[in-house]
Amino acid sequence: MRMVQANAEAGAGAAILRSKVFVDGQHPADLSKDLKGADLHVHTYYSEDVLPSPSNDPIRLYEEARRRGLQFVSFTDHATMDAYDRVGWEREGLVPGVELSILDRRNVGHTIHVNVYLLDRGQFRALQELASRKRDLETFLAFLSSERLPHTYNHPFWFERGEKPNFTAVLEVAKLFPVLEYNRGRTRSLNRLALALAGHYGKGIVACSDSHTGRTLGSVRTYAQGETFQEYFENVRAGRSWILAQDMTIRGLVEEVNEWIGQFFARSPSRAGSDPVPAGLGPKSFGWLLGLRGRGGLIGDNLVWRLFKRLLYALPNSAVIQSLYVRSQETLALRVLKQLPVLLAPYSVVQTGLSAL
Ligand SMILES: [Fe+2]
Questions:
Q1: Distance from residue 153's CA to the centre of ligand 1 (Å)
Q2: 75, CA 20 to 30 Å: which among 14, 55, 174, 212?
Q3: Residue 341 pLDDT class (50, 70, 90 cuts)
Q4: How far is the CA of 338 from the centre of ligand 1 (A)?
Q5: Residue 213 CA, ligand 1 centroid: distance in Å
Q6: 347 C-alpha to center of ligand 1: Å?
Q7: pLDDT at residue 140 above 50?
Q8: Of the ranges 29-33, 230-234, 314-318, 349-353, the best mean pLDDT one
Q9: How many angstroms is it from 310 CA to the middle of ligand 1?
Q10: Nearest Cα residue to 99 out of 8, 10, 183
Q11: In this model, does residue 12 exceed pLDDT 50?
Q12: Beta pairing partners, 23
């Protein structure tokens, strides 16, 4: 097994990653039984970029998370907590959570994503108000601190399409968070940068799937001790944790798109009266397509529909788009490093381990 075992004795100002990192999704055989494994970033069909398929039902995802041996799981849909009204707010190992976007133009310049845990409806509404109206990161984070809500800086080197990224601001933002995220949906070089960032500022790190189809749920996870989620998160924050990490690859992207297409054709949410998928969910830009799917006449053995289906499956398997995307992410990582050479320093500190990554 390849492993990064960073020095836990970080001195003042030392740039050292305190958590231990296992790569390529291999479980450490000698992992203590006291450690709890968690995937704290999972989307359900209440997210606008998830298909309204029964596979993405929070009830089904919760059961799947338990089956895959996760002790903690959090459904962090984009700006909604409706999943908890469906699955229940108090289920064993289920951590109420949400993923919020905030665009603080003055202090950051680009949109960032923040996961917040253990919040109730009232706190969610207050945060949503701060994120969407006030748009001041400092006030937003002050609220999280005053309410003692665990939170993470998600995928620090992800940038919204159409926005100009401010790489330097990422350093400043990272300083303000207790824990940064290693994201299964990012390439290895971008995730290395997240590790370097965590190491540079002595932050905790969580590995999350950011699953949008359920396929990768629990394929990466964070291990730490803790009877309660608060205790667990405190251990993660302090670096008393391990992450089981994997990255996005061209092959993984092909599989993900195939899963997505499979879910699209699997079942119409509006055909069967007993279908539990609520109406009106799903990506808005695909609304017309989802509408077609719901019209029985176009689904059956219609030749046009079958040709369309075949074409859709052919596209991802050529892997052209996925290759271009991965290449664009590698270019992004190089740009970041060029502008933030400080992130090279932690690599040298933990070079032995990271060279195996
Ligand atoms: Fe996100």
A1: 9
A2: 174
A3: confident
A4: 24
A5: 14
A6: 25
A7: yes
A8: 230-234
A9: 31
A10: 183
A11: no
A12: 245
Of 247, 243, 350, 349, nearest in space to 22 by CA: 243
Ligand 1 centroid vs 67 CA: distance in angstroms?
25
Domain parsing of the chain, residue ranges: 3-251+323-355
Q: Which carries the bigger pLDDT value, residue 43 or residue 341?
A: 43
Q: How far is the CA of 99 from the centre of ligand 1 (A)?
A: 7
Q: How far is CA 13 from CA 10, 19, 122, 339, in A?
A: 8, 16, 39, 21
CA angle 84, 117, 35 (to 5 degrees): 105
Give 352 Cα–ligand 1 centroid separation in angstroms. Answer: 31
Average pLDDT of every residue of the chain: 84
CATH class of 3-251+323-355: alpha beta
Q: Tell whether the model's pLDDT for residue 348 goes beyond 60.
A: no
pTM, 2 dp: 0.86
Output the CA 173–ligand 1 centroid distance in Å. 15
Give the distance (Å) from ligand 1 centre to CA of residue 110: 13
Report the separation in Å between the CA atom of 304 and the middle of ligand 1, taken as the mean of its atom positions.
Answer: 36
